[in-house]
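Risk register update: the risk of archive-format incompatibility is retired. Evidence:
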Amino acid sequence: MNINKNLLQIYVEQGLVQQKDVPDTLAGCARSNSRVRDYLLTRDAFTETAELPALAAYYCMPCVEVDMLEFDKSLFDLFTFDFMKKHKVIPVGYDENGVLIVATSKPLDCHTLSAMAVQFSCRCTYILVPASQIDRYVDSVSAAISTSAALSDLNTEKTEQQLGAMLKGESSVSSENDVINNPAVRLVDSIIKEAIPHRASDIHIEPFEKHVKVRYRIDGDLHNRAEFPIEAYSAICARLKIMSGLNIAERRVPQDGRINLTVGGREYDFRVSTLPTVFGEKFVIRVLDKSSFQFTRDDLGFTDKDNAIVDKILARPYGIVLLTGPTGCGKSTTLYSFLKELNDPKVNIVTVEDPVEFTMNGINQTQVNVKANMTFATALRSILRQDPDVIMIGEIRDEETAEIAVRSAITGHMVFSTLHTNDAPGAILRLQDMGVDNYLVVDALVGVIAQRLVKRLCPACKQMGRATARELEILGLDEPVTIARPKGCQFCNHTGYKGRTAVHEVMYMNDKMKSVVMNEKNLDVIRREAIENGMTPLWNACRDLVLNGTTSLQELMSLNIE
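Archived output:
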C-alpha cells in the first residue's frame, strides 16, 4: 500500500487526482485488490498520455510520446514484433556516445531490459512511453511490411484468372492455408488492419483504367497508401465482399455491409459501402472503434466558457438540444459524450440512429431500416411509447421528424438531435422552414451547438513567428502577436498537422433569447442577440486556437465563416 500511496500523491501533485478523492481511491484499491494505477485507469480517471509526466516523476526517468521518436528500424531485425508488444520495449537507436536508447513502458521489468543490453552488447538508457503507443507503433510497422509484401507478391501474379481461381479454391489452391496466404487475401487484410495505427477514419479503394488506388482519410484529408494492378481487382472485390457479407455476384447496384475484427486486442467495426463505377466497384470502409468511447467534453474541445453554458443546457429536465454542422464534423461523437454524462440507472435513454456507430452500456439503441419502413419518424413514434426520459435522434431530416421531436420535447422529454446548418442561430430558421410553428420552436428549444473540426498543428515541427500585417488584418488585431505555422516532419507525414480538435459556438435559449426569436425572423438580429447573451462565434473560437498555437491561420480561413 505504500507504493500505492506514493504514486497517488504524485497523481495529486500533477493534478490528475483531487486530494479529497484520495481516501475513496485507496479504499477502492483495497476492495478490488488492485494497484492505484490500474484502479484509476480502469475508471477512466485519466488517459495514459495525461499520466505520463506523473509516471516519469515516479520512476525518475525521462518520458516522451512515441510519435516524437525517430526509430532506427534496422534494429527491429533482432526482435520479433510479438516480443516488443509483449514486453513493451522498442529499440530507438544509438546516441553519439554509442549508448542504445530504448523506449519502454515497463521500467521495472529488469529481466527484459537486461536482455536488451546483452543482445546489443552495449550500455542502454531508457525512455518512458505509454504502453498503448508502443502497441500502435509496432502494429503500424508490422502492417506496413505486410502490405508491401502482399503488393510485391500481387505484382508477380500472372493473370486475373489465376488469382480468382486461387481465391475460390480452384486449380492451384489445395488447402485453407493457400487461401489465407494468397496475396489478394493478405493485401486486403493488411490494408484494413494498417488503417488502425494510422488513425484513419475511412479507407478508399478506387479502381481506375490501369490500376487500383488505396487511400486513407487521416485528420480529414485523403492520403495515398498503395496502388496495385487492375487485373487483380476482381479477387480484391471478392475478398472484401466475403468479409463484409455482401453479394459477390451483384456488381450493378450499391451495397452496404460490415466487417467485425479484433485488432491489437480491441474490437473494431468496419462499415463497408460499394458504388459501381466505370472501371469497377469502388469501396469505402468507415473505421469505428467499438471497444471504447472515452471522449469527454474537454477532449472534444469545449472551453470553460462553453462548458458553463452546456452545464445549464444539460441540467434542463426537458426540451430539445440541437447540434449543427456539416457532415463529418463530429456531431454524433459530441451527442454520445452528452449521453454518457446523462447515462444513469434511474434514466431511460433511447436512441434512433442511422447507423448505430458506438454501442453504449445502459442505453437502448435502435437503427433505422428504410426497407422495413423503420424511419426516424416511425421509430420516434414507437419510442414515445417506451417511457423514455432522454431521446437521441440521429438526424432531423424531414418535417414529420421535426414536428414529432419538438412536440416530444414539449411533453416532458429531453431530446437530442442534429441538423445541417452553418451556425447555431441558423437552426431556428431551419426548424421554421421545416414547418414547425415559431411558438413551438421557442417553447421546446433549450440550446443549439454549432461545431466544426480543425486540424491541430504538429507539436514536433510547428514554427512560431510574428504575424504579418496581412495576417493581423485577417485576425482583426492591431497589436503584434506570435502565431504558429505548419512545417512538416516525419512524425506528421510531412503535413504539418497531427490530429484534430473541435470548435464550438453554444447558444443557450434563456427567456431573453426566446423573446427575440418569437418576435424576430432576421437571422443577423438573432445572431447578435445570441452573442450578447454569451455565445462565442465559431470564427472567434477558432481564432483563439490560432493565437494559442493549437491550429493555423490556414485552418481558420478554411472554415469559410465570419
